[in-house]
Amino acid sequence: MQDRLHDIVRKLLGEGTIEYFIGYGAGSEPHRVVPCFVTSDHEVERLVWGPLCLQNLSKYVLQAKDLEGKAGVLVKGCDTRAIVELLKQHQIEREEVVVIGVACQGQVDPRTLEEVLGVPMEQVQGVEDAGDQFVVTIGEDERTVAKEQVLLGKCLYCRHPSAFEYDFTLGEIVPFSIDAGESEFAMVEELERLSVEERRAFWQKQFARCIRCNACREVCYACYCKECIFDRKMPRWLDKPPLLSENEIYHLIRAVHLAGRCIDCRECERVCPMNLPLSRLYKKVQKDIAELFDYEAGIELDEVPPLVSFELDDQDPFM
Amino acid sequence: MERKKLQKSDLSRWLDRIAQEHELIGPSEDDGVIRFQPVESSAEIAVEFANSLIPPKSLFFPAVESLFSFHKRGKDIELEATEPLDRDRVVFGIRNCDVQSLSLLDYVFGQDLEDVYYQERRARTALIALACPTPPRSSCFCTTFGIDPLSSDGSDVLLTDVGDVYLVDVVTEKGEGLVSLAEDLFPGLTDDEARQLQPRPVEMKKVDISQLREKVEALWEDEYWHKMSLPCLGCGICTYVCPTCHCFDIVDVGSTLEGERYRCWDSCMYSDFALMASGENPRPTKRERIRNRYFHKFSTFPSRYGSGYACVGCARCLIHCPGGMEITEVIKDILAKESISE
Amino acid sequence: MAVEGSETGGNGFEPKILMFACNWCSYAGADLAGVSRLQMPANCRVIRVMCSARVRPEFVITALSKGLDGVVVLGCHPGDCHYSEGNYFTRRRGLFLKKLLEYVGIEPERFQVRWVSASEGAKFADTVAEVTRQVKALGPNRPRRNAQ
Fold this sequence. Notes:
The complex is a heterotrimer of chains A (319), B (342) and C (148).
Chain A: H1 2-15, E1 18-26, E2 33-38, E3 47-48, H2 58-61, E4 70-75, H3 77-88, E5 97-102, H4 110-117, E6 124-130, E7 133-138, E8 141-146, H5 147-150, H6 153-156, E9 168-170, H7 186-192, H8 196-209, H9 215-219, H10 244-257, H11 267-271, H12 278-293
Chain B: E1 2-7, H1 11-21, E2 23-30, E3 33-39, E4 64-73, E5 76-81, E6 89-94, H2 96-108, H3 116-123, E7 125-130, E8 157-161, E9 165-170, H4 173-180, H5 191-196, H6 212-217, H7 224-228, H8 237-240, E10 248-254, E11 258-265, H9 286-305, H10 316-320, H11 327-336
Parallel strand pairs in B: 2-6, 6-7, 7-8
Antiparallel strand pairs in B: 1-9, 2-3, 4-5, 4-11, 8-9, 10-11
Chain C: E1 17-22, H1 26-35, E2 44-49, H2 57-65, E3 70-75, H3 86-103, E4 111-115, H4 121-138
Helix pairs in contact in C: 1-4
């Protein structure tokens, strides 16, 4: 697959079809796979594909709008949903970007892998996909772990492993699924069963820990506003000090803004340095949008988003 | 300087004794994140750790602090200063890179203008440093910036793990005071022990940075900054986890009748950081913002304070950057550029 | 900005409730309640908006997080919107926002949406009385401000 990726990117760059390609590249240490921008032929070899390609690169398509020409991007099935939403929300034109789709077989959660193996990621030399397990190289040793033990949370419930909106694909579309054993909304339902006081305590503790580094916002494909409401000075919506009230406003307004647009890529949770359980917030948003309006973001290009539309016979508890 | 030893099993007794007299602060895990925070007893302290996520600069220059509160009564305005500390503090487990970062922050908050909040916290806090584990975290590169991870420079007491015991270097009077709280736990070393118990050397990748400043200064207009800034997302993680970054904002929170003046961390990576009231932004894109950050670390800071570089090689930014930007790679790239004189 | 006076607690607790009323129906309903000299508690601060759809969820979240004790959005009955369909959007947003706020630990009574027409002065007075009673029973919204 990696060879085919190199061939396609070489061809696209050679023909002048794209100005640069956004893929995954090796970082300075083997376990660290980083976003990689390839502009010329000799850099193509840096591109990699494997189970540590965690980032949703669709976010970078937005800045490629500044280019005179096109950009190319590598997307997994889950990332494709961001491309679909960006098209739906008129943020990119389909012709502006060359999409290379890949059939993903699940991505490793480094934090979980460290726990399961009892080995820090910095000692991991590589992770290879091997059917229903991963082969992890640690020094001279190779250890195998079952996929369901170490997959990213979102991969356990993946319904779109392979890209479904693309110009080129790497190899065949291979089905992939894992029996996660419980509903994808189990983590939300667990909180819903608590009393309102217990939920308050849970979220107040989490919001209080937030340092407001804005990483969750900046990594989010849907945060493309030229001027974010939180950065506005006149009127000012949010005070800069990371006080509890301000942090709560930040996270709740973000959740509202993501309603009907969150595609469950969980990048916000992955990049959060403070380990805030943000997917518990955004899964709730997805659940409510699905239950109330029978809508899922990032699947159908011509579906109308729920909060910019209505039905005359929507339920009405407000009489 | 006096060298003693401490049985590992006695560490908690010593720390608990300290906690009776002072506020004890140590690396402690909360929801999977290690940070320096006040603890009730030594049981909450994580001894096996590489380094904290949030650097201990937050103990002296907090992410958010109230400077004073104000109340308007009729035509009078009452101001009430916030006391930075209730009592003296002891920080256990600080690494030497972070100790050295404090000596850099001392320039910022003490050289031209004295920041009373920072100064009081510095004066009333003792540092018990913990020498780095061997091998250190693979990303660490403090030796590149001339820092010895085993040095006691800047701390009050240094503990070095040499198997079953810690070597204890008592550096300052403050440190003596802490050791004297439980004198019987700290026997001196016999001559044999002094020979045998030696810290294991720390191996780390090291880069020659003697030309870094002149090379980076020659790069101001270089195209390099554009391409290298592409993966940057514009979040503030690198600056918030950096032990030497010290930019802040001052904000009044409240109404016109009453409220508080806060100081909180700010980040030069934010798009509104350099925004002026006129609407002009001298650093309008990621390219200028990133260039500014590296220039500040490698050129502006050393030239303003006559100090070393404003980086201590703790590798936090490199580990946590969601865009995978690695400061070690940037340094290599800068050094690989032909210098202008050649 | 800072909201004071909601910390008194106990029996003397007088909640501060923010009420958004649409210009064409609910605010006229409030007027009618006034000229009809209907008695109601004085805990609601009314802000007139041109349409209930003008009330962004940000208004509600900010008010509650800053420590107000309750927020009520009043609009025309569905079908009666002066702008034909504004309140249909309000209805969808209200449905969603209510669930989200409950999920993060804000009691459902603290955020309510009601339809009040220009002729429903009595309903306006009843709504004010009912919401005030409910929020009073809950006690002060958590003193969230400035907790660190």
